[in-house]
Amino acid sequence: MQFFGGSDVSPSPPATTAAGHNANMMYMFNRNGVCLFYREWNRPLRTLNPQQDHKLMFGLLFSLKSLTAKMDPTSGDKGNLGMPQLPGQGCSFHSFKTNTYKLSFMESPSGIKIILVTHPKTGDLRESTKYIYNLYVEYVAKNPMYSPGTPISSGSLVDFRNYLMGLSLFIKLEVAN
Amino acid sequence: MPAVPPRSGDAIFASIERVNAELFTLTYGAIVRQLLTDLEEVDEVNKQLDQMGYNIGIRLIDEFLAKANISRCVDFKETADVIAKVGFKMFLGISASVTNWDADGTTCSIVLEDNPLVDFVELPDTCQGLYYCNVLSGVIRGALEMVSMKTEVTWVRDMLRGDDAYELQVKLLKQVPEEYPYKDDE
Q: Which domain of life is it from (chain A) (predicted)?
């Protein structure tokens, strides 16, 4: 699918196997905890104001990464729980599932974190998060009007938002057996 | 899902959108020329080129990580190899090699086989202190800073100054792991 001039975004968006809006929310953070982007499609319950919500989400990810690295049975060298980690050091989780939602996570070595909250039966979203990261690169990192480290909200970034509006159509739904 | 290996520099270079090399060279030359006219001091121009490179590097790193499928960035040796083999190839189409590792593995040299920035360029006598390609050192410094590595990048050999090759020395000062950014007030 050719979206961006001559070059293909790689990987191309994953094929949909079922129609329907499976994505509930999406967050993007940078390495300093600034919430670069937040979009919700279906969120009936809101308990915190947005700043607290973002802080909570970021804190959750930070702690989960620390925990998964510490509990890794294959790695020999483990720091103390809570010790700051280098990007890519130790293992990192990529999703967790509860009975009402599934949270999928991707972190780049440069600290850009992409979180998708979806229906619990959604399949592996690593390709979708990678696709979002490519969109970020194409439309945000390369955009001269965007200052790195600030929330993505200016009018010139409307392309990024538009592509993400349709993103719920790209989320694969695989019913787990 | 098995881990996806990093893509090779050649493969990415072939698939990415490219711009005419002469256009690139001449545009860069015009930038340096303008900086020299505006700032006049060669040291100031060097610093400004480095700063411009830094600003480019902090954005470039995301494109690099996305296109090259890189997920880990901890080992400096691996990082230097990746910069030389994949990074330079992907963005400038040049092959580079890593040499001169020091004893504790924190300093290395990247030697560039050729350099598209300096085609048709000669330094006049008034600009002998100029590091014409200083933007490249800024790019590497900026990009590595975004993956938690503070580095110092300097030019060791520069063909415009009469040496036989282009050699960049990259020195790792320290690795700064991610800290929890919020204060514990709630």
A: Eukaryota
